[in-house]
Amino acid sequence: MRRNEYTHRRRHISNRHLSDKYYYAGEHETATGIRLTQYNEQSLHTKEVRITDTSFSKLTDSNQINWFEVSGLTNADAITRIVKDFGLHNLDAKDILTPQHVVKVEEYKGRMLIVLNSCYYDVNNEMRSEHISILVANNTVITFTESNNPVFEAAHKALLSNMLNIRKKGSGLLLAFLLNTIIANLVESASKVEEILEDIEETLLDPKNDQGNMGSLIQQHRHEYMIIRKNSLPLKDQFSKLLRTENGIITPDILPIYNDLQDQLQFVIQTTESCREITSSLVDLYISNNDLRMNAIMKRLTIVSTLFIPLTFLVGVWGMNFKIMPELDWRYGYFIAWAVMIATGVLTWLYMKRKDWY
Q1: Which of 84, 109, 129, 303 is the most exposed place for a label (fewest CB within 10 A)?
Q2: Whether pTM exceeds 0.90
Q3: 209 and 341, same domain (yes or no)
Q4: Are residues 159 and 306 in the same domain?
């Protein structure tokens, strides 16, 4: 019960007001941990960093690229100290601690702050969204993630294999690999949602398939593609700032990589547009199929009603309490009545079939 109260209280922290101190406004409860990876052309090593260290900038090595991985944002004081230690403002710490913050690329003298959101499918095939911030200060890169999920595992593999000579390059190439991991997750998520929506469309186009839960599936994947669009569209708008930067972090030799990342973002935007159109058509198709099924049911009920109208008339005539009704005293009247009613029903059915009413 105390945990629920804590989570409920933290959801209402918005960090919208100016203050000397800000708090983590998300829902993850991962304890803050810091890992430092330092590398150059000759060496690569990783170590854990204590949160209680008074100065994180003193842990850096000017002869190497320094990558701090901060997982978990619950220790807002530590996050703020790291941000200030590398020359940024208290308000930049607020942006990092606020998952609801808009996507942005902020450039300072020799520094850059990127605030964005990533989404991916977990092992249970459920979409997850995570707030990620990247701070670049000369030869130091700091990544902030809400959880301890291995979001940047691909970047670690690239360092181990020295992909694209990453260990010979500066922090700009490491930033490219980090952004590539995030954008690749967006591409995979958008492509998967598009494939699922196309499968739903095939199901709806075949009336023989069971379409009982199609409505909830459409709404679920509509919500997922909207999350992807919300995370990718602002990033696409802000990404152009990276291509125009003049702080020396992104050098001309790695600029083609950033152009490729921008192309991948454009692909995500186009895929989400396709998902939007498919979803709109699926909603119309689902409603149309429901109307068709309702019409088919009404048609069956109408046929049954039509068959029984003349029979009801005959039964009503013979059910009248008149004294002079010869059929009532006739020995074969009961059997003749049944024959007349059966013949009437069969003839009515044949007539409707000939008119192709069903």
Answers
A1: 109
A2: no
A3: no
A4: no
